[in-house]
Amino acid sequence: MPLCLILQLLSAVLLSILLFFLRSSNIFYNISFQVPVDLTSDYGGIIHGSPAAVFRPSSPEDIALLLKSMYYFPLHHDVTVAARGAGHSTHGQAQARDGIVVDMRSLPLSITIVDGDGTSYVDAGGGALWIDVLKETLRHGLSPRSWTDYLYLTVGGTLSVGGISGQTFKQGPQISNVVEMDVVTGKGEFVRCSEQENSDLFHGVLGGLGQLGIITRARINLRPAPPMVVWIRVKHHDFDEFTKHGELVVNSGEVDYLEGFIKFGDAPQSHQPKKDFSRFGAARCVKPRQPTAYYLLEMAIYYADDDDDDAAEEKLEKVLARVSSRSSVEILEVSYLDFLNRVRAEELSLRRVGLWDVPHPWMNLFVPRSQIRRFNDLFLRTMSVSCINGPIIMYPTLRHKWNLNTSIVVPQDEAGEDVFYVVGVLRAAPPNCTVGSSCLDGLMQQNEQMIRMATGRGSSHDGGGMGAKQYMPYLKSEEEWREHFGQKWKRFEELKSKFDPSNVLAPGQRIFKRKK
Ligand code: FAD
Fold this sequence. Notes:
Mean pLDDT: 90
Oligomer: single chain
Bound molecules: flavin-adenine dinucleotide
Distance between the termini: 14 Å
CATH class of the largest domain: Alpha Beta
Structural class: alpha+beta
């Protein structure tokens, strides 16, 4: 295989020499056959697939050149290409076994503020980290509206999956906050796209799992950045009350962020004043016994400016009156930057004790509102035989905030509900639960069992038939993908034939087989 790959790369070099006379090209210098270990795996640490080569573009044109050469001079028909952002996928999605990984982080950092028609935007490179986008926009008193919980992910990486957090119910996911993109298609064409221009590619790429092209720039809308945030956690013991309160807040739009967590055991008591709230907890395995389950609603209210204290206080009172008795409430005030970057401190402390780079058998689902109680029961039943190490996220969001023309798939509630739930079972494997061990296989099987029951349509008698959809799906065959996309499949398949007809891109998603 490496010989075939060398032939394929030779074609890229030949093309680059050809083009050299037209313009200077770096492509020859950008290919390396020495693959660093960290590029052979990902955050999940479960699937390992070494590429034959790493391509480190110094400009979007380099990416276009590589893909163009592969399309027009296919010296070997097995070679695939995967863009790799921060590599924070969990099931090999950014890998290209024996193919070429395009290291998007090697592109020069490009983040520029753009003013237009009374609104401000940021133009961010596809390989830029969201933390860098935040820091640059804050220098101008501005900020993107929609976030992920963790910011050390790339713009291209999250726009390829959706990009969601506690702001989504109000601002839509990140893919609903993009107005224009530059994309290099699987044919090596450099295309500018938006709602008005090349809209099929624009919609297809957003949430399109890297299948149609590589995002090299995204224009994202901005808002004035609030300096401070009131960060609130309200403890619930009753599941129905937890969901009722979460939905009340989401529908009233009174807060700027809302998430929820399922926890087990006694809530930690600390008499030290807190600087932030933990989501990972004390990195140890907790036996999820049902009687000890409790639920946290986490909310945030942004202050618009220093004079706004009273308004924020008023909002806080109103929200608390809706959701709680005061005894179960914790409140912190933190800067906007610290709030958005809250997972970083936990990452660093897990890294210090060697618990960040462990396998992560994660599972993410969108569950229809009408099924969330059944899903909670299924989750508690399935987990009763294990221990849980990592956050369990569960919160409501609103369907009408999602641009359904994009490639993302969200559930269609039979009851026609606007609310659906984001569920993340974000476990870290306990010590000794290594790749290939029966213990890790057991965790993966538990996930599969829950996914099968939650995503199944069939009957509800056997616990299935919830009509949920996987977010960042881990699926293994075209058949399963067909089922996942449902009515969107035909269009997605057509877009794939149009923009990546040889099925070169993002093989790690396991959707389309490379065409021979
Ligand atoms: P990678 O893992 O490198 O790539 C992911 C996919 O996108 C691959 O198929 C790849 O080929 C493709 N891709 C990468 N770059 C591009 C590009 N420029 N153009 C086209 N395709 C590209 N997600 C949320 O929505 N909300 C969260 O709160 C959240 N929190 C997270 C916290 C942690 C600790 C981790 C590890 C992940 C979290 N995620 C969250 C998931 C994360 O958004 C996705 O895994 C995302 O794809 C990771 O971005 P990345 O840059 O690491 O992409």
